[in-house]
Amino acid sequence: MPSSGARWQLGRPNPRQRAFFLAGSRFVAYGGARGGGKSWAVRKKAVLLAAAHPGIRLLLLRRSYPELRENHILPLRAELSGIAQYHETRKALDFFNGSRLRFGYCDGDGDVLQYQGQEYDVIFIDEATQFTEYQYSTLTACLRGANRHPRRMYLTCNPGGVGHDWVKRLFVDRRFRGAERPEDYSFIPARVYDNEALLERDPHYLHMLQNLPEELRRAWLEGDWDVFAGQYFKEFSREVHVVAPYEIPGHWPVTVTMDYGLDMLACYWIASDEQGRAHVFRELYREGLIVSEAAEAILQRSAERVALYLAPPDLWSRRQESGRSVADLFAERGIPLTRTAGGRVAGWMALREWLRPTAGEEGRREARLRIFETCPNLIRTLPALRYDELRVNDAALHPHELTHAPDALRGFCVYWTPEARPLPKRPQPWAEDLLEDYANADAAGRQYLLEKYG
Length: 454
Fold this sequence. Notes:
Blueprint: H1 15-22, E1 27-32, H2 38-52, E2 57-62, H3 65-79, E3 84-87, E4 92-95, E5 100-105, E6 122-125, H4 133-140, E7 152-157, H5 164-172, E8 185-190, H6 196-201, H7 203-210, H8 214-220, H9 238-241, E9 242-243, E10 254-261, E11 264-272, E12 278-286, H10 291-301, E13 306-311, H11 326-332, E14 338-339, H12 344-355, E15 358-359, E16 365-366, E17 369-372, H13 376-381, H14 404-415, H15 432-440, H16 443-453
Parallel strand pairs: 1-7, 1-8, 2-5, 2-6, 6-7, 9-17, 10-13, 12-17, 13-14
Antiparallel strand pairs: 3-4, 4-5, 10-11, 11-12, 15-16
């Protein structure tokens, strides 16, 4: 790098930081836990790009200016003395080869508008989970230009924060939508154990992380994206509750529980065993279905004889124009619904009890509620629910997309309490004439036969 004799040193990156430096996808996320050396990696990568691509335009962002100043501006000004000149009014470092690194912050959604219309070759978002998805999406539009410089966005992140859901969706769960392409996104996980320099310099930092409350320890030390501050169901653990599929015995009664609206049908098949455990083994998660389409989709996926169909009370509200309810429409199409309790908080408490692990063999934690890996939307949304800011003890209604699957499961948990509701007796095989009667019966008749003969 041309200078007046000044020298800059990269230092020794650890393997994770080296992978961050070499990543070639358009969007690169780095982190997952605290103490992984994220800010150091961002500063070094910015200088490397400025040196390798004369005239490149770089933007480095944090949520607030004090964080930006302490974590990046002051260290870079010290490191690059004689190599780049800092301009306080523009909040930018100008390098002798024409490259420029600008510093910015986005304390609120309105702050991001100052970057509209501007062009940058590379954008760094440090602590990206502190940014909203709107801020992130707006900034991606600034990643453009007619030159031959690389077009990249580098993000660092920890679980939690207002941007937890969109960062997890793109980089951890890799659930893409619209024009998002999987090959454009890469995630480099890093934990404090990867940062040997920090462990040598401050070993007490590791002890501090190990002594945190469980949810913070899982997020900040282990980089667990299924737990974060404000999480509603801290009891949920993939290790405990998510299982590989196995065969469901034919004598286990099957309940179908749903949350239905035109925006989304979330439907789950749950088998109950003799020990009072529930096995969520099938998922139907589709949007934009009218009642006839929803009923057809449910019946097509019901390979087992269903003992009970559960639905929330709002499906019994009658429409003025027809005098019929959604529950009536489902019944007419062969799905007689049973109403569950409507109390949200009571339902969530019941679900919390189902999630509470019990002691199994050799002290291992076992779950009364087990979810097959083939139910990805339930596994994704259940741990993502947050506490509502206004309604004490309730889960937040927004983002609304996260509520459908948990609401469906809530209906089962509040209705099916093993302590209060004994499991049905093992059903006997139906005789051929009884099967024929069931096939020819209307919805009310089918419900009667199910209740009488199981």
